[in-house]
């Protein structure tokens, strides 16, 4: 497995609609493995393939539950609970809404409160090509919606006012310049 470069705003590829996966094969499984390695290293809890410059409908998520600790014990590393979503579709969204403070590996070091449906029902394929359908709530719901947005060319900042969105993009561009990377518009 290898680390993949994560593209950042304002890269135009982040605004494209990702193509459906036609077949689950060894190449796709390798991509999924590389995406997990990249996400864990970043570190993050979700990553869409388009964020590593592969515009295909693939998402990896791991909320990394804390390791349960016995009384008087030091906490261990988080327990990995990887989820793979190939061609994910959000079938239903609840009327109930929740606000979460979201961030994004393609918009480094920037966070904002985003309101989304609290519960979603989704359908997807796993890495063996099997179909699944389930309901998600809480952070998993938010993360899945965030990553599916990426597959449709939507960023979490698009859910903000134009003023807030522009301010965040300016901050990212300034940070890139300070790191010595020329930002291309």
From TrEMBL:
Known catalytic reactions: N-terminal N-formyl-L-methionyl-[peptide] + H2O = N-terminal L-methionyl-[peptide] + formate
Cofactor binding: number and manner: Binds 1 Fe(2+) ion.
Signal peptide: none
Cofactor section: Fe(2+)
InterPro entries in alphabetical order: Peptide_deformylase, Peptide_deformylase_sf
Gene Ontology molecular function: metal ion binding; peptide deformylase activity
Pfam families noted in UniProt: Pep_deformylase
Active-site residue numbers: 147
Residues annotated for Fe cation binding in this entry: 104, 146, 150
PANTHER family membership: PEPTIDE DEFORMYLASE
Protein name in the entry: Peptide deformylase
Gene: def
């Amino acid at each position: 497995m290898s680390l993949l470069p994560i593209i950042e705003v304002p890269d135009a590829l982040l605004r494209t609609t990702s193509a459906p996966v036609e077949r689950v094969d060894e190449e796709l499984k390798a991509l999924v493995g590389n995406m997990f390695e990249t996400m864990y290293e970043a570190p993050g809890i979700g990553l869409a393939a388009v964020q590593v410059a592969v515009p295909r409908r693939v998402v990896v998520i791991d909320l990394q539950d804390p390791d349960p600790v016995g009384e008087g014990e030091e906490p261990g590393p988080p327990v990995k609970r990887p989820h793979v979503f190939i061609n994910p579709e959000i079938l239903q969204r609840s009327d109930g809404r929740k606000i979460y403070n979201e961030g994004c590996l393609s918009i480094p070091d920037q966070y904002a409160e985003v309101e989304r449906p609290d519960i979603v029902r989704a359908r997807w394929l796993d890495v063996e090509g099997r179909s699944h359908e389930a309901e998600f709530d809480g952070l998993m719901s938010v993360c899945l919606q965030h990553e599916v947005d990426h597959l449709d060319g939507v960023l979490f900042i698009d859910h903000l006012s134009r003023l807030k969105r522009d301010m965040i993009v300016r901050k990212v561009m300034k940070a890139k310049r300070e790191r010595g990377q020329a930002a291309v518009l």
